[in-house]
Structure formats: structure tokens, C-alpha cells
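Attaching the record inline, Q. Sequence:
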Amino acid sequence: ELPPSEFMQVADSTWLVLSVVSNGREPSGCQATGVTKIARSVIAPLAEHRVSVLMLSTYQTDFILVRERDLPAVIHTLAGEFDIYKEESGECVPVTSDDVSNGFLKPKPAASPTLHPVQSPQTRFCVLTVAPDTLPAIATMLIDVLFYSHSPLREVSASSQDLDSITFFSFSLIEGYISIVMDAETQKRFPSDLLLTSSTGELWRMVRIGGQPLGFDECGIVAQIAEPLAAADISAYYISTFNFDHALVPEEGITEVIQLLQQRQESSR
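Structure, as predicted:
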């Protein structure tokens, strides 16, 4: 419904959403545990088969977006480990690799992916949700934060290893469930009784991947972060955006995360 505009940049790919569930049910907890839970079984195999993904963690669960044209490769890659279903008219219908095998060629082994620089701003973030019926009560504040309160964008060189702060605010509304990521200072502007978070109320730190916009054709970017964190059993809340990828980790684990990622980069040189 959005009119064409010279101010709007649209990626040329159509994307499909993969939702990974356990034993046929969505995760029941409301603790943001994130992408590391599915890194080894989903993201890493797709990266090995040269399938590019976008990752979106929400307060309730995680979603993997793949390009529609990559669907045959996705199904062939994951069919051995997962029962795969597609949604048709509100019903879940089983999918087998035979359904999409026509014309599928197993890709050649991919070259080692580019290891992008990782930056860690000092900003502390909160991962929150809001009950849908209370959303109107904070609508004005949301509009102000989303459209009027941003500071001017800062140019950051690719060699910069650390930032003092970063402007980052994420709002998603998926099937009635709301997820918000905001910095701790912005959170103070909202009514505290309407923002819901985990019982521990933990704060998160961010690692941002990429010294320049990443594009959509490269694979292995999510795996670059997810695999070492999964090996260390560290949770991450992952958000791919049009220009960069972002992983939030519990504040007390940021030092270990940076060390792990630096070791991975050094070992790959």
C-alpha cells in the first residue's frame, strides 16, 4: 500500500518466514533466549549451503527469513533434521524435499565467509513487551521516539572497535505480539507499569556486525555470531536490519562475547 518514492529503498527479493518450534509447539517462556538455541541446527547448515538469512528475535520467539528463491535449498538442507510444514489456508501441511526437488542442484561448497568487524557500543538496552490492549496508552510516546527523537546519524569508520553510544530502537508487531528493544535511558520516558520484561529485568549490551551496509547476498553473517556463542552456551537476541546485523547479549557476558568473537576473527586470518 506504500506509494513508490525516491526516498524508499526496497530489496529486490521476496522473503519467507521460518518459525522453528519444539515438539510442534511455540516456546512458552517469555525470556529472550534468542538465536543461539537454533544456531547449530538451522543457521549453520544454511550458511554452509550458501543460503543467506535475515534473523529476527522477538520477546516470544525467533524467526528466520529466507529468500523465496532459496526455498528448495532450505528444505533440502533441513529436511533431514526437521519436520517441515507450510501454512495453507490457516492449516499446516507437511512438506517433503521431493515437493521442491525439481531443478534443485546441490551447491558447491562455499568459500570461507567474510568476517566482518564487530563493534560494541557502551549503550545498555532493555528487551520488553507490551500487552496489546495497553498499546494506545503509549502510542504518542512511541511515535515521538520512532520519528522525532533521533539524534543525527554518526559516521563510524570500519576500523572503529568501540562506540560510546548508538541510536537503536526496534518495534515489532507479529500476530498480535509486541516486542520492543530500547536503550535504558529511553525506557525511562515510558510508563513503567505498562512495559513488561523478564522477572530478572536484566540489561543487554550489543555487538553490531559490519563496518558498512552488508547487503542481502552474502551468507554466514548470522553464523559468524551465533556459532561461537552457541558453543559457549551464551544467549543472544538477534536483529537483522536493512544495513547491519545486531546481537544483544546479557550485560554481564559482553566481555566474554567480545573475546570469543575476536578469537574467531584471529583464528580465521
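Residues 96 and 257 are 38 Å apart (CA to CA). The chain has six helices and 13 strands.

More tomorrow.
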